[in-house]
Design goal:
single chain; alpha+beta; five-stranded mixed β-sheet
Length: 344
């Protein structure tokens, strides 16, 4: 157990700011995207979207006016949390509910409300989140192209006041581009799930129950181990963060007005090859087995799914599904599984 971090987290509110920083580098050409993904670690990219008129508007303090000029009047998703939440968007008392409400409004009206509430005491916390720009503001996409990603990867807009989004992860790779304000990303590797005390899977997205800015280590002692693996990224306007899929992240908007565009891509597997759905099927298949049988299947997974050489003793041509399958073999296995699942 990370005892020094346990004591520090209990005594030092600024512990997050002192964590190791995510590395930064100049933005690569589009051909370098595969290398970023293969490396599998978060990285801050500099200069990636320096040519965007949206960034210039943000740096000049004119982003609300720029966005209003592109608004076509369609309703947008708006989240609002009461002042008592301190802007920490997360679960309510019942983990089946959240501590914020969702509604629709015109973007121009939502922006006016966000700006009007900035600096007010005991004001609610308002944010527009996950606005699909290609659908609702196509002129933004045309004026602010992303050179690193394929054209079919669509951006989403996030605008709000000083809000905190509780620790969660994504099934996709994530590229977050800050247009206005300053953001802090607290990051944990994918394997820290047990130390983050994540909430119910059937109320997506599942969130960590721990407030990393004021962790209750008596209630969540393993969170100290998560902190020992954590790193932090501070993003200014013009900075982008590449976040590989499954990395846990707690996001804090640090300015009275904040805006970010992000891109999700990569979660394109379907059917019996979709990892999340197969995981849910595994919950059905293995959780209620006797301990000895669960131990057998755990060993099978560790040997033949997660190890690299579990079938090294079998000639390559005779490994079947334990080896590199040809396209026809993969198709046959998919069909076999579909038939098996249809029987349930």
């Amino acid at each position: 157990m990370a005892e020094p971090l346990r004591r520090a987290a209990a005594a030092e509110p600024g512990l997050i700011d002192g964590l190791p920083r995510v590395s930064a580098r100049a933005a690569p050409p589009a051909a370098g995207l595969a290398d970023l993904i293969a490396a599998g670690v978060p990285i801050v990219l500099k200069g990636l979207f320096a040519h965007w008129p949206a960034l210039a508007a943000g740096q000049a303090g004119q982003l609300p006016a720029y966005l209003k000029g592109l608004d076509r009047g369609a309703p947008v998703p708006v989240m609002e949390a009461p002042a008592r939440t301190l802007g920490k968007f997360g679960y309510g008392i019942d983990l089946r509910e959240f501590n914020f409400t969702r509604r629709s409004a015109r973007l121009s009206d939502a922006l006016d409300r966000i700006l009007r509430l900035a600096g007010e005491e005991n004001a609610p916390h308002v944010a527009v989140q996950m606005l699909p720009l290609a659908v609702q503001m196509p002129d933004f996409v045309a004026q602010n192209p992303m050179p690193l990603l394929p054209a079919d990867v669509a951006p989403r807009l996030w605008v709000g006041g000083p809000v905190h989004t509780r620790t969660h992860n994504d099934r996709d790779h994530n590229l977050a581009c800050v247009l206005a304000g300053r953001r802090r990303f607290l990051l944990f590797p994918p394997d820290q799930v047990a130390n983050l005390y994540v909430g119910p899977l059937d109320n997506p997205p599942p969130l960590s129950l721990v407030d990393p800015e004021a962790p209750d280590l008596a209630r969540f002692p393993r969170f100290a181990d998560a902190l020992a693996t954590a790193r932090v990224a501070f993003l200014d306007p013009g900075d982008a963060l590449f976040l590989p899929r499954y990395w846990w992240h707690h996001v804090t908007s640090l300015s009275p007005f904040n805006a970010m565009v992000n891109y999700w891509w990569g979660d394109d597997a379907m059917g019996v090859e979709q990892p999340h759905d197969v995981f849910l099927a595994a919950l059905l298949a293995y959780r209620r087995l006797p301990p000895a049988e669960r131990g057998y299947w755990q060993a099978m997974f560790e040997t033949h799914v997660f190890a690299e050489d579990g079938a090294a003793h079998i000639p390559p041509s005779q490994r079947g599904p334990l080896g590199e399958m040809r396209a026809s073999e993969r198709a046959a296995l998919r069909q076999r599984l579909r038939t098996a699942f249809l029987k349930s």
